[in-house]
Amino acid sequence: MNFDSVDGVFFDFGGVISVSPMAKWGETLYPFCESVGLSRDRVLEGFARYRRLWDGDEISFEDMYRRVFADAALPPPSDATLAEIRRFDAASWVDRFRPDTLELMKDLKGRGLRLGILSNMSSDFHRDFFAPKSGAYRELCDVEVISGFERVCKPDARIFAIAERRMDSPAARLAFLEDSKANVAAARSCGWQAEVYPDADERRRCHNLRTAVFLKAAFRPSRADCVVGAQHFPFAVFGSSSSTASGETIRSTSAKRREKTGSG
């Protein structure tokens, strides 16, 4: 990726600005749904089948779950049941935010780049959850492109064209950080520079380097390769004088630590 030519950077919301709650749903959403007869598999099937309709403002959150219940041949859920599901599902996406992303956004803003949020979310989610809770991130942004207002969702190429017009930049001069591989591929097919953003746990496993972030590579000469599980992420390393001075990779640093500790 050639970040030297980037004028604007778009961030996804769920998983990038906020911490995805789905890993915790086994303690919250799924048990509640199972208590009213809806299995975990049915919830996930409904997520895959209907979520984009809600994100695009084609149906309401409540109608989305009514369809999920109907698909499972269950009676329509009560208003109280839907309110609890909304609490465990929709509201959980703003329970925790990523300070590492906020730090990155502040840094990029300070370097003169324009910032934007490009996210699949319904207009009611934007109103009820995103806008009230995301002020620190939103105030750094010049542009918001929200699927519920545009009535088109990622990975549709039309939403990337909207973002280009809104940012007043050509595709080749825009970057996108997103947790969905499909949406990253879609952005790239539209001519954008895009990368899959590592989740917070992956970032911590990369030795918790405060500044091991993709876009910093645009401004610093020293790079490092971090292998997390089976995935490979190109990171810039800075904010650590020993790393930037020597040009050593995170991987080689890990090896030296193992030699000292004798751990495998």
Describe this structure in words.
With 264 residues, this protein is α/β, with parallel strands linked by helices. The protein is built from 13 helices and seven strands. A hairpin with a 2-residue loop joins strand 6 and strand 7. Helix 2 packs antiparallel against helix 3. The longest helix is centred in the first third of the chain and has 16 residues. The two termini are 33 Å apart.
Topology:
Blueprint: E1 8-11, H1 29-35, H2 40-55, H3 61-71, H4 79-88, H5 99-110, E2 114-119, H6 123-133, H7 135-138, E3 143-146, H8 147-150, H9 157-167, E4 174-178, H10 181-189, E5 193-196, H11 200-205, E6 223-228, E7 231-236, H12 241-246, H13 250-261
Question: What's the short version?
Answer:
The protein has 13 helices and 7 strands.
Q: How many strands, which pairing sense, and closed or not: the largest β-sheet?
A: 5 strands, parallel
Pattern of helices and strands: EHHHHHEHHEHHEHEHEEHH
Strand order of the largest sheet: 3-2-1-4-5
How many β strands by DSSP? 7
Q: So how many helices?
A: 13
Distance between the termini: 33 Å
Mean pLDDT: 82
Strand content: 5-15%
Structural class: alpha/beta
- Helicity, as a percent range: 40-55%
Q: What is the radius of gyration computed over CA atoms, rounded to a whole number of angstroms? A: 20 Å
Low-confidence stretches: 207-264
Dominant shape: elongated
